[in-house]
Amino acid sequence: MRVFLSHRTESEGPLARRLSGDLERRGIATWVAPRDVDPGSTWAQSVEAGLRTCTHVAALLTDDALYSGALDHELRVAEMRQLDGQAVLVPVLLERVDLPVWPDATPGVDFTGAYEDGLDALAETLRHSAAAAAPVERPIVHRVRRGDRIDLLAARYLGDPAHWRLIAEQNPGLDVSALEPGTLVSIRTRGR
After folding, report:
1. What is the domain extent for residue 167?
2. Please, which contacts does 94-103 make with residues 24 or more away whose CB atoms are closer than 8 Å?
């Protein structure tokens, strides 16, 4: 499982980063802007690539967010991927809003109360929807950035730094002792 955190950077960015860290500590990999935006691509290209590599889209929603052009685009892509059976759309309600009609969307996760309660509900919803979906093995392609280490990639994408050997096995010839910035690394998440 890998979750794309759809949000408005200017207003929900701090919450999205906090959620990303907390979900990853619970073993749920995330894609969040601006952290995962590829510096070699445009913002839009990186977002599209991120959406294509994720199994879930958690949309952080407020009334203002529902009128954001960028978020609207992400939600349309997420909806199309959901209709194709490629992703699960999870509305995360940061305030009481009237949700658009999304076929097959999971019920909204309420984040209007205590943060920990919302985090618990979101993690449970993500895990439940992942278990209900047919397991699909999709490789993630990560472009190495300065400071990346193989154990950090394993923790981020596979939920455990000790799984670095799996990444090494999937990428013969990769110098795991010194990842070169710009190198593409394929990571099979094995249905996670």
Report:
1. 139-188
2. 94/12, 94/15, 94/60, 94/61, 94/62, 94/65, 95/61, 95/62, 95/63, 97/61, 97/62, 97/63, 97/66, 99/61, 100/66, 100/75, 102/75, 103/79
Q: Are residues 78 and 34 in the same domain?
A: yes
What is the pTM assigned to this prediction? 0.66
Q: Are residues 172 and 101 in the same domain?
A: no
Packing angle of the helix pair 43-53, 69-83 (nearest 10 deg): 30
Residues 93 and 111: beta-carbon distance below 8 Å? yes
Domain check: are 67 and 147 in the same one?
Answer: no
65 and 149 housed in the same domain:
no
Each residue's pLDDT tens digit, 65-115: 878 888 888 888 888 888 778 889 899 999 988 777 665 567 789 999 999
Number of domains in the chain: 2
What kind and span of H or E run contains 130? Answer: helix 115-132
Q: Are residues 109 and 153 in the same domain?
A: no
179 and 105 inside one domain: no
